[in-house]
Amino acid sequence: MKKLPQDVVIFMLLKLPLKSLLRFKSVSTIWYTLILSETFFKLHLKCTTPKKDEFILFIRTLREDDPYKFTSIASFFSVDDKNNLTTLFPDVDVTHLTSTSCTIFNELIGPCHGLITLTDSDIIIVLNPGTRKYVVIPESPFDCPKGYYRFIEAVAFGFDSIINDYKIIKLSDVYWDPPTDDRGPRGSRVEIYNLSIDSWREHNIEFSSIYFTHCSEIYYKEAVHWFTIQHDLVILCFDISSEIFRTVELPSVCTDLNGPRYGLAVLNDCLVLMSYPDSMCSIGHTENVLNIWMMKEYGESESWIKIRTISPLPIPIESALVIWKDHLLLLQTQTGYLISYDLNSDEVKEYNLNGHHESLRAIKYTECLTAIPTLSEHSKQVQQL
């Protein structure tokens, strides 16, 4: 092996799965240095994009014997050609990584260079699901003034390609909390954390309140996307590098808030919008239909086209989760179980994977060498799940 040119060695190593690469760091000092080098990392990042290499991470909540206690479980899967799930690692109990008694508030954000953020709004962790290493992000030092109430609207995560750093963004509403318990005027607060320097800062910028639905927060094109209401329902975007908010209009028939739910996903490298029945809606005329709209030109509202209608839905669903490998639409049923709908064959498959009502979260990722930066000596350090 010593006689092989370095470019040949690099070519060979790039063909290996992440698990083998991590083991081969122990072959020699030269290989250790090579595999952890910035050059190799960038090459490996470009090689881990095929859809066949996509895996899935589920976070789900299970109720314990005590009706007021819940357990939060992380599950890692791959899928075969027949849409069967294969476990990559044993399930991991991540209840200790949440601060709420009911962990249905967990959200998964990303992926970004193979990294994912898991948060319940109070506790935020950055996780590499391929290596199962994670770090708990220190709390923001900014408090509310006395007599005010703070409500966290959303947490975002992404990569700033200009300064070559990862950022976490926390969006909050701040209300005056008078003695009558009625909320006073609303103010907004944006807090940004830079991972490389382990530091929070405040950003003086206003934003519209987030209209939360499941599968409504997505990282795409170095921006994070949510829904917000500005006369009608629109997509609110936050650009990670410029730290500027902007909005994108939805198709004109997708602004009704009195019937369907809406979700965002990525399909064939394009942003897509899903509309489907709201299980909590009392209006009886809600159709049992799931529509998928695709934005052909990102940022151009006029480029929305409807690409698929699933009618009727084979099973009553609670929420859309993610589109995996550009054909497998994952959904949580109203009974709490995971099902898939194959957009190519129309095949429906139910899995032996379930969670508490509205608790199932899913995010697709590719295994990557991305190292989580070591934080300052006063912060929690990188740990292993």
TrEMBL record:
SMART domains the record matches: FBOX (SM00256)
PROSITE patterns: FBOX
Spans traversing the lipid bilayer: none
InterPro entries: F-box-assoc_dom_typ1 (IPR006527), F-box-assoc_interact_dom (IPR017451), F-box-like_dom_sf (IPR036047), F-box_dom (IPR001810), SCF_F-box_component (IPR050796)
Highest taxon, organism lineage: Eukaryota
Domain F-box: 1-44
Pfam families: F-box, FBA_1
Descriptive protein name: F-box protein CPR1-like
Organism: Solanum pennellii
